[in-house]
Amino acid sequence: MSEPSSKGRVLIKVFKGVNKVVKWDKLPSFIGVFNLLAFRLELEKDNLHDVYPDVGSQGTTASCPMKDPRYLVTRNSDGLFNKLDEPLMGCTGMRFGRNVSREHTKKPTEEELLTPNPRVVSEQLLKRTEFKPATIVNLLAAAWIQFQLHDWVMHENVSWFPN
Amino acid sequence: MKIPRTKPTAPLSKLDESCPAYKNINTAWWDASQLYGSDEATTMTLRMGAVLGKLKMREDGHTEYLPRDENNLPLTGFNQNWWLGLELMHTLFALEHNAICDMLHEKHPDFSRWVIRCARET
Predict the structure, then answer these.
(1) Mean pLDDT, residues B49-72 taken together
(2) Which residues of B touch A75 (CB under 8 A)?
């Protein structure tokens, strides 16, 4: 969650008005780019929620110094130093950020977790009695999306199944 | 079918106790960690002494495939939930990485360490 500057807030307001008449992709490219910037500022303000209690948790140049200067020009597989002033951001083992405020993500009780029961969902909602063709995507879309997701996130599990 | 529970991380604040946070075992960056691994040691293992900054592949006749571990699982950055579609994507991108290494080496034969870095960024 980061508050945009006063200029940023004006930009968001202006384009909210403009978009009621013209959508961003119908604007001339040069103006459309600023429309995208307004979206970005607004999304950063309202749709990115830090899951750490303080900013320092993302590391600082003092708490997490770069001992080998080659990481200025090469990638570290742990994800370190992609952001130089907050070196731990996005690293392996860091908490995954959220798109909703944390107050709304209370841990469910056992009962809530199983309501509706996954079996009911499987048998009533997902069950197919006849073939329903997918008309806009093929199986490659599923493979591609899963391939990309595996780049970004896998939550740590309580019991570890290798596969 | 077993569905493992997501493990909440150790709480750092009061809020964490009622609204837990969860650790990501991959890097959240768009850095192709599913191919190269989410730690330096894995990346080095995947190269396994292959030349020119390439990823190690298993040759079979005229074709190259992803190498396998002792359980016949693919050796790649992230190999959970495996199926044919992922085998396809991972093989394609590993071969593309190696093709870029070859191309860079052909054009700049003097820069060897530089090659893996650039192939990865590309």
Answers:
(1) 89
(2) 31, 117, 120-121
- The domain in which residue B31 lies consists of 27-121
Is residue B36 in a domain? yes
Any domain includes B15: no
Q: Taking the alpha carbons of B47, B50, B54, B58 in that order, is the dihedral positive or negative?
A: negative
Give the list of residues 6+ apart from residue A124 with CB closer than 8 angstroms, or none: none
Number of domains in chain B: 1
Contact A78/B39 with Cβ under 8 angstroms? yes
Say yes or no: A144 contacts chain B, CB-CB below 8 A. yes
Q: What is the mean pLDDT of chain A?
A: 90
What ipTM goes with this model? 0.89
Q: Is residue B10 part of a domain?
A: no
In chain B, what residues touch A139 (CB-CB under 8 Å)? 85
